[in-house]
Amino acid sequence: MNKALSPTDFGALEGFHDLNPTQDDFCASVIKGLSRKQKTLSCKFFYDQRGSELFDEITTLDEYYPTRTEIGILERSSADIAAAVGNQPTVVEFGAGSVRKIRLLLDAVDAPVFVPIDISRDHLVHSAKCLAGDYPETRVVAICADFTNDIALPKDLPTSNRLGFFPGSTLGNFTHDEAQQFLERTRATLGTGSAFLVGIDLRKDAETLHAAYNDSLGISAAFNLNLLNRINHELDATFDLTTFRHDAPWVEEHGRIEMRLYSTVNQNVTVAGTAFQFTEGEYIHTENSHKYSVAEFQALASSSGYEPVQVWVDDAERFSLHYLRG
Ligand code: AVI
Hints:
The chain is an alpha/beta fold. 37% of the residues lie in helices and 24% in strands. Strands 1-4-3-2-5-6-14-13 form an 8-stranded mixed beta sheet, with helices on both faces. The radius of gyration is 20 Å and the shape is globular. Bound molecules: N,N-dimethyl-L-histidine (AVI). Residues 58, 66, 168-170, 172-173, 213, 220, 259, 287, 289 line the site of N,N-dimethyl-L-histidine. The site of N,N-dimethyl-L-histidine has 12 residues, from β12.
């Protein structure tokens, strides 16, 4: 889908490529997910305007350590990172995430070209425009796309010295197979000789993990429930949010936190004309957040064709930032 933008929409943006999935994809995915025996919704749909705001709030919570820990690693290790990466790469960010993180990276490596890729069009345009304004020497080319699909980068981008950036442990939201496929695809997208900087949350005690996804202020719960609200508004659905409850257990067997929404009553819900039955105590699985040891992630990267070159970890060994060569 190509959406026309007026010249003023671009601001200082060099280019904007819209490969955004349509509303039909959202509807089809929700109906398919709720039709499964284990009802499932994809976590990539968390991020409407309200969902993105709630996620930003999560990243500031005391219990949610990943964001501030990764920023600390980037701050402390920026000189090492720059030495490993070399100067002036084309930086391709998968997910236009934290403004702080990308600025730390751009400052460290002096990137002449920056390519943010994100599924949320408004968020992408806003953050890319801000960056383009603040980094007048950097060419910013934004791509609105679902990075869980194949993405062909625009042909006029430099083909050598590309550096992928995938912070925040978003890779943990994929299953192991999906993570491997994603890494293989990004390697193909970025090209041989490229590098990839990937943030990965580390395995740790269950109590710390549990608190991070079941915070005392209830922001994680609001973030999870907002998905039902989004489906109500965008897909003409009838979820009664007072009859669903958030829980996010640590599932040792799979090495992951699972975000779940439990139905507290027997009920029927309609989505875009299709009816779904819920029994009391049944849950919708809305997200996985896998945690890896350094060795586990390096094995995954190797099996995807990357060479793990260097890894930076905070003193408390909570989070890791991996430098891989393609
Ligand atoms: C975006 N992603 C890495 C977050 C995580 O920690 O898995 C999403 C999140 N879900 C609940 N809290 C945060």
